[in-house]
């Protein structure tokens, strides 16, 4: 898009009008708010700037969307809740300011699981976001609207938040790229909180290079120097992260491991510390924090979806001592896990144990869906999900790369190499009812 804009093959208005048209034509329910007048007016201003030789950078004129828990000045921000259905913030979140300053065009606010507190995006107030590969399947949560909008080619990129996998799960289920950066490397200022000590803000994009571009703007960092691929040391956990997987997930994720090894990375099996107690600490921490953050919005059960109210009630059963004990254990576990980086640059495993599940799945899918993503929210390490194949039913499968604090550039180098080698097809239309 950027090359075509600068080559005068297309205008910002044309790109924006096409994105808006796709958003309106889509039956995925990916958007809560679509900003026709706002976006086109901004597009005209950006076209005028280019005509004068003023270029704001790589995102100049690129249509994007924001998850609807990220504050946007003068634009309704619902958090996926009826409590905030008419809330119009007086300020932009810091990531919105940064992306706006870099020239991006916001065309709308994307749907999400209520208050970001879930993994299905079955929102009782605004309706479910459908999976672009199969509308009977979930898009993943809580950033499902962003994942669906990007995967379906409505926008080039979108923002998301991730507290237990909420960027990476939609990326895996919808077949796009999602980055959970290092904790607090991208500002959370102006983002509705769920579990503040595990909340992350990051991008969803159609390729790894675009994720790197969005991240550099959102974090305000220059691309770091990284070793050549043949010097990157990748660990494949021999315990926990490859257990109890759908056969197709195992097959395609292992295929991605073979690809990166064939390209020259130093790949070996490693044993990681016991993850089970880490998951319990993450659960206690999140439930305690969400009982405070989203439980404070209303005392009335009727104002929440049933699943979200159940989480609030669970969180209220814990004591302050329970929370403090969890934080003590968390600090000790973080030190133990950090020893992995003494002789590794990256870990690699599937993103989710299975492809997107059906909307009418009878069981609570939350614990199993987040089993491979949640540990890295508690640890705060950056994690990148990218597609690595498709199931027999044509559903995307994601593989996850994880690195030490501040090492996003390693993830981009390894992820781009896998992506280029696999050459998986991207959706080019806007799938709706039926495939």
Molecular structure report:
The chain is an alpha/beta fold. The chain has a single domain (2-276, 331-422), classed as Amidase signature (AS) enzymes (Alpha-Beta Complex). The protein has helices at residues 2-6, 12-25, 36-51, 94-101, 144-151, 168-174, 208-219, 247-262, 276-293, 306-316, 320-338, 366-369, 375-379, 408-422; strands spanning 31-34, 63-67, 105-110, 130-131, 134-138, 157-162, 177-180, 200-205, 233-237, 266-270, 346-350, 383-390, 396-402. It has an 11-stranded mixed sheet with strand order 1-3-2-6-8-7-12-13-11-9-10, with helices on both faces. The two termini are 27 Å apart.
Oligomer: single chain
Poorly predicted segments: none
CATH class: Alpha Beta
Mean pLDDT score, rounded?
96
Report, as a whole number of angstroms, the end-to-end distance: 27 Å
The major beta sheet can be summarized as: 11 strands, mixed
Q: Specify the overall morphology.
A: globular
The CATH homologous superfamily corresponds to: Amidase signature (AS) domain
Helicity range: 25-40%
Features:
single chain, 435 residues, alpha/beta, two-stranded antiparallel sheet, 36% helix
Brief write-up:
This protein is an alpha/beta fold. It has helices spanning 2-6, 12-25, 36-51, 94-101, 144-151, 168-174, 208-219, 247-262, 276-293, 306-316, 320-338, 366-369, 375-379, 408-422, and strands at 31-34, 63-67, 105-110, 130-131, 134-138, 157-162, 177-180, 200-205, 233-237, 266-270, 346-350, 383-390, 396-402.
């Amino acid at each position: 898009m950027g090359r075509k804009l600068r080559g005068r093959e297309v205008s910002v208005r044309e790109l924006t009008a096409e994105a808006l048209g796709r958003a309106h034509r889509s039956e995925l329910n990916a958007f809560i708010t679509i900003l026709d007048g706002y976006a086109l007016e901004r597009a005209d201003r950006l076209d005028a700037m280019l005509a004068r030789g003023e270029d704001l950078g790589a995102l100049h004129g690129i249509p994007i969307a924001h998850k609807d828990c990220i504050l946007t000045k003068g634009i309704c921000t619902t958090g996926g809740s009826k409590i905030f259905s008419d809330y119009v913030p007086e300020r932009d979140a810091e990531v919105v300011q940064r992306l706006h300053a870099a020239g991006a065009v916001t065309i709308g606010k994307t749907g999400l699981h209520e208050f970001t507190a879930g993994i299905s995006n079955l929102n009782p107030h605004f309706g479910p976001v459908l999976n672009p590969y199969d509308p009977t399947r979930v898009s993943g949560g809580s950033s499902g609207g962003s994942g669906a909008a990007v995967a379906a080619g409505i926008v080039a990129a979108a923002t998301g938040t991730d507290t237990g996998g909420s960027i990476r799960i939609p990326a895996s289920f919808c077949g796009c790229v999602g980055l959970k950066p290092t904790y607090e490397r991208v500002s959370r200022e102006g983002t509705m909180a769920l579990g503040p000590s595990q909340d992350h803000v990051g991008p969803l994009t159609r390729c790894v290079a675009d994720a790197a571009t969005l991240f550099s703007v959102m974090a305000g960092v220059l691309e770091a120097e990284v070793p050549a691929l043949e010097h990157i040391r990748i660990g494949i956990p021999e315990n926990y992260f490859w257990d109890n997987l759908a056969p197709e997930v195992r097959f395609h994720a292992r295929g991605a491991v073979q690809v990166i090894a064939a390209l020259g990375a130093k790949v070996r099996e490693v044993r990681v510390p016991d993850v089970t107690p880490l998951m319990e600490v993450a659960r206690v921490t999140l439930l305690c924090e969400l009982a405070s953050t989203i439980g404070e919005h209303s005392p009335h059960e009727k104002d929440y979806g049933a699943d979200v109210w159940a989480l609030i009630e669970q969180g209220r059963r814990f004591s302050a001592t329970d929370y403090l004990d969890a934080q003590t254990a968390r600090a000790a576990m973080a030190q133990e896990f950090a020893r992995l980086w003494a002789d590794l640059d990256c870990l690699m495993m599937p993103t989710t144990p299975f492809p997107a599940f059906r909307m009418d799945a009878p069981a609570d899918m939350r614990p199993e869906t987040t089993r491979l993503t949640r540990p890295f929210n508690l640890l705060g390490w950056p994690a990148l999900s990218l597609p690595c194949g498709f199931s027999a039913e044509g559903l995307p499968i994601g593989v996850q790369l994880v690195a030490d604090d501040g090492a996003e550039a390693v993830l981009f180098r390894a992820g781009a190499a896998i992506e280029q080698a696999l050459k998986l097809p991207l959706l080019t239309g806007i799938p709706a009812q039926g495939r």
